[in-house]
Amino acid sequence: MSQNTFKAMVVTEGENNQFVKEIKDRAFDDLPPGDVLVNVKYSSLNYKDVLSTLGNRGVTKKYPHTPGIDAAGVVAESRSKDFNVGDEVIVTSYDLGMNTSGGFAQYIRVPADWVVKMPKGLSPRESMIFGTAGFTAALSVYRLVDYGATPDQGRILVSGATGGVGSVAVSILAKAGYDVTAVNGIIDEKDYLLDIGAKEVISIEEATDSSGKPLLKGLWAGGIDTIGGEILATMIKSIQQHGGVTCCGNVGSHELPLNVYPFILRGATLMGIDSQNCPMPLRLKVWDKIASDWKIERLERIATEVTLDELSARIEFVLQKKHKGRTVIRMPE
Ligand SMILES: NC(=O)c1ccc[n+]([C@@H]2O[C@H](COP(=O)([O-])OP(=O)(O)OC[C@H]3O[C@@H](n4cnc5c(N)ncnc54)[C@H](OP(=O)(O)O)[C@@H]3O)[C@@H](O)[C@H]2O)c1
């Protein structure tokens, strides 16, 4: 390498359990050993990154640390036969940005088996508009389709619809011909959701049953939940005969107050989504779908771009619950 240092966000633990975010110069020698050095062009902001910047030990144990669970860029050095210098690649999931120096930096060094070749039809920037949240949305749709959900069966309910996972799920389902009902409540964004493909928008109150009934009227052919708790329980109780629901998040609650009737009387199926440990063959299939059939036409509508210097302010925005869609981070040249 001709340069000795690179720019990165570094989170340090200060006094009284306060964590400080700064953009600093880091040395290449500080990066962990690995097969592939990637010159990161774009990263993206996920909820897990926000937790890492706050010092959440469930995400990151040791500080100083560079967060960023997503990165896309160009291979700068490779000891792997599968990747050559100059290849465009995506790295998401595994331990990136958790306890391995992450994508909020001009460079990452990672094992070759974490690296995905950029699928044809996708640029590094576009791949990061999807990022982990978008990949999770696509994986959720993939599971529903694989389960047998077809557009003629009825509406699909998506919760946390203005969020990263929700926005991409709404957009992909609409593109694939499904009628989508979006649950929106934290920020009022009905026009945004109709614009990205929802057929109708309902409130959190409408999506949350308080009657205590064990089963509700079968309204939805399928569901994609990001919230957990009462919203997920209501979604499962309101599923049509043999419908499927995916579960990936816990922004509302990690509890699931439910009974067995949706499963034994309606034949409902609950599908867990774990993008972090998604096996590589399935991972490649889902990225290929993202780059082709499910490539969202109005991708820019859900994206906001910030620089590495603007990232701290954007993280505050997420903490104030004002964020919608996906944030991509452009690295300095
Ligand atoms: N399992 C996996 O592999 C995986 C991967 C990625 C993400 N996740 C998880 O999926 C969840 C969503 O991620 P994301 O990136 O989409 O997050 P996000 O961008 O922060 O969006 C979450 C959305 O949920 C809604 N919301 C927020 N707080 C809520 C509350 N207290 N009660 C009900 N709704 C609330 C809001 O949408 P509205 O205003 O439209 O209601 C918000 O935009 C997170 O829990 C994340 O950790 C899991």
Structural key phrases:
seven-stranded mixed β-sheet; globular; 26% strand; Rossmann fold; 25% helix; 333 residues; alpha/beta; 15 strands; 2 domains; binds NADP nicotinamide-adenine-dinucleotide phosphate; Quinone Oxidoreductase, Chain A, domain 1
Description:
Strands 3, 4, 5, 6, 7, 14 and 15 form a 7-stranded mixed sheet that branches. The chain has a 6-stranded parallel sheet with strand order 10-9-8-11-12-13, with helices on both faces. The protein is an alpha/beta fold and 333 residues long. It contains 8 helices and 15 strands. The protein folds into 2 domains: 147 residues, Medium-chain alcohol dehydrogenases, catalytic domain (Quinone Oxidoreductase, Chain A, domain 1); 140 residues, 3-Layer(aba) Sandwich (Rossmann fold), CATH 3.40.50. The model has no long low-confidence stretch (mean pLDDT 96). 25% of the residues lie in helices and 26% in strands. Strand 14, helix 8 and strand 15 form a beta-alpha-beta unit. NADP nicotinamide-adenine-dinucleotide phosphate (NAP) binds next to helix 2 and helix 3. The site of NADP nicotinamide-adenine-dinucleotide phosphate has 29 residues, from helix 2 and helix 3.
